[in-house]
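This section describes the prediction task in plain terms. A model, or a person checking by hand, is given the sequence of a single protein chain and must write out its three-dimensional structure as a string of tokens. No templates, partner chains or ligands are provided. The sample shown here is typical of the held-out split.
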Amino acid sequence: METAIAAVNRTPFSINSITLSSNFATGSVSALGFSLPNKKSPSFHQRSRIFVTRASVAVEEKAETKAAVIRIGTRGSPLALAQAYETREKLIKSHPDLAEEGAIQIVIIKTTGDKILSQPLADIGGKGLFTKEIDEALINSDIDIAVHSMKDVPTYLPEKTILPCNLPREDVRDAFICLSASSLAELPAGSIVGTASLRRKSQLLNRYPSLEVLENFRGNVQTRLKKLKEGVVQATLLALAGLKRLNMAETVTSVLSIDDMLPAVAQGAIGIACRSDDEKMRAFLEKLEGSCRTPIAGYARKDEDGKCLFKALVASPDGTQVLETSRKGPYAYEDMIKMGVDAGEELLLRAGPGFFTR
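The expected answer:
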């Protein structure tokens, strides 16, 4: 595991369960709380004795109230770091003691997905490629919390970890970026669209079979936009949420509607993981065994009647066949779980064996 620490000073740290302010998304199962070092711990007394010898009681009191270090694990891409720093700022707003220099560390961890850029994600393992090493660091106590893009998180979390809260969700839609056309419909036949997402590829080819897709169009947002400017592709599709978090929304040519491009499950959401066990997962992907190897999309929202409207989609990788379904029911946790499971079972039945290998 390759790591880099973006801050200094380590201090003992512990996690409790408390209620956070509105900086974190409403409806989280629980939230993260932080406590000061235990006064009975050897490290605390050692530090206190050093301060007393050097200075005065006032300095000793400062040592007692110094906030514990929180180590946030993250990937090193500009977008991942933006999400980690957003998490840090919200933690500081909720817990002012954490504003002290060195109280929060950003620990950069290089994942398998970051190291292997020459192959499509589906060929090297699908989901988990951008989270595995971070989760291992969390389990091994090398970090205290992990910040993940929720769409990268596998259907099943590693043992001893839990995702107790999410930051407020950003725009879930996809963005079309092109230097020569204002929409996908305006692209000439044979134009190459770059995307590493099977979900985007299958929906794109289903609607616009005259276009071509460069599948292994990988790298961070800046790298992909550079390839676009260099003419490697004529257009690309990116998550609007990431562009907004990077303050790069001005690069967007047009925003695709939910009907034109159904987003990935949990697109635009940032999850914060800590150590613990958890058995509750996103019901739809659990039923479909979702990963980057299967073109799956899903989106749920509260409609004007206060009901939950859920849309789901699976597609063959070549885009020749797209199966869609929807559910509407009470906007309640158990009911929404049932809708997700039911939709997943329907799509699996309709797809049949070999559907995802076409």
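For orientation: The first strand starts at residue 2 and ends at 5.
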